[in-house]
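debug: dumping io for the single-chain case to check the tokenizer round-trip. Nothing else runs in this session.
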Amino acid sequence: MVCLLGLSIASLAQDVTVTGRIELSQSGKMRLRDQSDSVAWLTPVSPMSPDPPTVATESSPLELVQKNKSFEPHVLVVRVGAAVRFPNRDPWFHNVFSLFDGKRFDLGLYEAGESRIVHFDRAGISYIFCNIHAQMSAVVIALATPYYAKSDRQGQFSIPHVPPGQYKLQVWSEHALPEAMQSETRAVTISENSHALREIRMQANTESPVPHKNKYGRDYDRQEPPDPAYR
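debug: decoded output
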């Protein structure tokens, strides 16, 4: 029993923090001022990498808050199977939906103070909008691995508690070209002496985003009055 406990503690002590940096630039020259909200994750691919732990109960519920006609945070990363609450903290109605890749759902119209819950039960990237306010958008990335991190404004990220082993590295950014993200998918070896990834450089998409449609596949109507609010 003491021997097994010692092995368990030794194994835990071998976990490392994987660090890296993602840089987005236009035409390979001009860096974006804000490099935040890119995502990097590691998926075990060899027997020497232990199976990822099961989804743990969150100490506080995951939330994508509707406030000031925006979602907070704009990018949310969760484990597959996680439940995300969508509270409305604006003084008007919202209708949150996602009918694209990832999790498809429509939460219907609900007022200030109410909330809805969505279970992200499969891996994928969900682009989320409001059927009333066209300017509202968010992204939920559901991953089948616990080893992930978002970048800060400088593009730095760190993934804690990664056991040594072979992994597949993948990255995502809302501003990167699809082929740029795909080209950065690669195998990496993580060890106690090798846990700093080389800098990830991707070309940013310089084209203006195509306006998304509402949940009925049509253009958004002009709001008269601007918001369906309450007294």
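debug: round-trip ok. The first strand starts at residue 16 and ends at 26.
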